[in-house]
Amino acid sequence: MSAAPSARGGDAPVLGVGPSIHSIPPGGQECPPHAYRGRLAPSPTGYLHLGHARTFWTAQERATEQGGVLILRNEDLDRQRCKPEFMTAMLEDLRWFGCEWQEGPDVGGPHAPYKQSGRMPLYRAAFEQLRAGGFLFPCTCSRQDVLRALQAPHQGEDEPVYPGTCRAVTGDKWQVTGDVRADAGGDLSPSWRFRVPDGRAITFLDGLLGPQSFTAGKDFGDFIVWRNDDLPAYQLACVVDDAAMGITEVVRGADLLASTARQLLLYEALGLVAPAFFHCPLMTDERGVRLAKRHDALSLRALRQRGCSPPELRAAWRQSPTA
Length: 323
Ligand SMILES: [Zn+2]
Fold this sequence. Notes:
Elements: E1 37-40, H1 50-65, E2 69-72, H2 84-97, H3 120-132, E3 136-139, H4 143-149, E4 174-177, E5 180-183, E6 191-194, E7 201-206, E8 210-215, E9 223-226, H5 234-244, E10 249-253, H6 257-270, E11 276-280, H7 300-305, H8 310-319
Parallel strand pairs: 1-2, 10-11
Antiparallel strand pairs: 3-6, 4-5, 6-9, 7-8
Helix pairs in contact: 3-5, 5-6
């Protein structure tokens, strides 16, 4: 893997430059120190299933146990896959299941808007801060390019480790202003990747799973923070929102453990304090396949129509933690 320190110039990156992101909005209510703030962050790309419900229920229990606040954030950045009808269904299904939130797109709150499509200026400011700090490089590789450049066949669910193809490209020829993105040669718009510190161990203490360690450049590579369709990638939007909304603990599925390591690098680069993390085991179907939105039979909607009650569903997963 090449490690040309192009935009960084070999110096330690400058933290905290550019527009800052504050957890307390101007004129907003300041939270008492250490007050627990958790979040539910569903994406309206399909009907929620039992696995989502279990993770969200855990998030709610943890907030309730600690006398905290739970917010609902609608992660609706993917214009192609997110649909208004799924957004309506998402809120209905969660309420039916017994979830309650104190801030959200339907109830408002001091950190509005609670839908990501309304928060683009915050993401753009964070992107500019990272770019000015020399943490990013533009990348024009397609997913196919990345797979082709790998030394060994890619295995596993997590995205392949980026082979470093565009690491040496300087960011200066690219211009990003508003929605107009082009380079002097008229090439395709690039995506922007975070250059990870190769070999560094990223460690954190998970609230459920205990000590976790990932090695940058080995367990995950340079990851996209800004997509070539001019949207922030999940990692960036998530970090910016969790910080801006004052989240103190992130409860989510264990499929995001490696994403947490990536996100910790973003917190550090942006000069933000990271929340605590609690990763829940993933739910599988009777054949051991992880639940996904395509498992219509286990959608909350279908279960409700079959006459299942939320207390019954919760009792069932208490007896059998992964089924
Ligand atoms: Zn590339």
